[in-house]
Design a protein that fits this description.
48% of the residues lie in helices and 10% in strands. By secondary structure, it is an alpha+beta fold. The strands form 4 sheets. The protein has a 5-stranded mixed sheet with strand order 1-2-8-5-3. The protein has a 3-stranded antiparallel sheet with strand order 4-12-9. A two-stranded antiparallel ribbon has the order 6-7. The model has no long low-confidence stretch (mean pLDDT 91). The chain binds protoporphyrin IX containing FE. The site of protoporphyrin IX containing FE has 27 residues, from helix 11 and helix 15.
Length: 452
Amino acid sequence: MPDSAPPLRPLRGPRGLPLLGNLLAFGRDPLAFLTRLRDEFGDAVTWSLGPRSSLFVFHPRHIAELLAAREGAYELLEIGWAFRQIVGRSVILSRGGDWRRKRALVQPVVRPRQVRSYAPAMVRCAAAAADGWRDGERIDVRAEMALITQRIVLRSLFGNDLGPRARTLGSAMDAAEQAVAAELRGIGLFLPGWVRTPSRRRLLAALGVIDTEIYRLIEERRGREQAAGQDGDLLSRLMAARDEAGRPLSPSEVRDEAVTLWAAGHETTSTALTWSLYLLSGAPEARARLEAEVEEILGDRDATVDDYERLVWTRQIVKEALRLYPPVWLIPAVAREGAALGGRRVRPGTIVWCSPWATHRDPRWFPDPDRFRPERWSPHARRAVPDHAWFPFGSGPRACLGARFAQVEAALVLATLAQRCRLDLPAHEAVPRAGLLVQPAAPLRATVRKRQ
Ligand code: HEM
């Protein structure tokens, strides 16, 4: 933890337009806007997104304080219609007692001991993809990573015997995600729920397919209630979960939590992998060290979950990629009555934001912040990084439930790919674009070089 956090006053910020506030400047290039806020105005900045007053905090100590106070002095920001259609009333959008109950029910199914059982699927899906690429073939890295993580999440959620349903479910989720992206690019966020735009109709159609399949899977599993939880997949574990009063989740609650784990875990992790491969392609030494580690630890055999701790350099690469390109780049919280930060009162209703993107690139915590340097995370060097200067999975009571799952997945997939091939990307710089996640603005095409 840094020694002292600067005081929150006097608060300054950029001038905004009447009614719109800083919405236009933010919308034009959000990542550059955030960096400018931090550089020009310091650690705590007032700004406004439309008519709502907002506060941005960049200092790790304020971030720690803010994130620790969620579901206390701060609550969830209400977000768009489209996301709610996908995740329903799951843990990710609930509040108060409802959220506490759901979090307690879902947490055990993704705890480290359970994540072990999903590791073979992670390795198998990555190996199958790499074995399918030909030497010299050009691949779209983001699309391929999305395919790998989609297959992993489908197997982890629903087991190995999905058959042709895997394709039906996978395509429906792709369609749903594209419809949400279209909604965000347009004016969808500002439209009431009853308006049916073409993207909303596509979203509802895709969700219809997903729901039909999931309810069918739940029904099939109910037939073998006694064995619930023993199929070893997330769905059966969710069905077997019981709250303090011994109550299970209802079928629609199971559906909502399953789709949430799927939606929250699939594209976030494939984005982290895409950026890792992009960064490695521009860092020959780091890549050679990765290949040497994989050769030494794995040789010709497939990775297992027990290799995770031993793949030290691989994990440092993932950590550094999550620093430079945190898929989730903004975390908001809304102040309630009695909220405070840095010893100051925060007016109820104020939206307080923090950004892994901006804080991860602050030269005070990461010297030469724009450079890819996995050695920052060696056991010795990482002691110099203040607590909460790196927080790609959030923190506090609402921190990411899948952080362990995602990190094991990213490291095992990266090691499995490095064992089999090299992906060479053109040397020009990829431009990050901030939508729901920070992703490359244009497709990243790589040439596959098979390794012996
Ligand atoms: C690299 C991959 C991932 C990143 C960067 C990421 C990031 C995040 C972040 C920043 C939050 C909000 C935390 C906060 O507000 O403090 C979050 C919440 C959440 N994540 Fe992840 N996540 C990833 C992968 C996953 C995976 C694999 C799963 C499921 C298996 C998952 C499930 C969730 C859930 C359920 C929540 C909501 C928790 C709550 O509201 O109580 N995430 N994630």
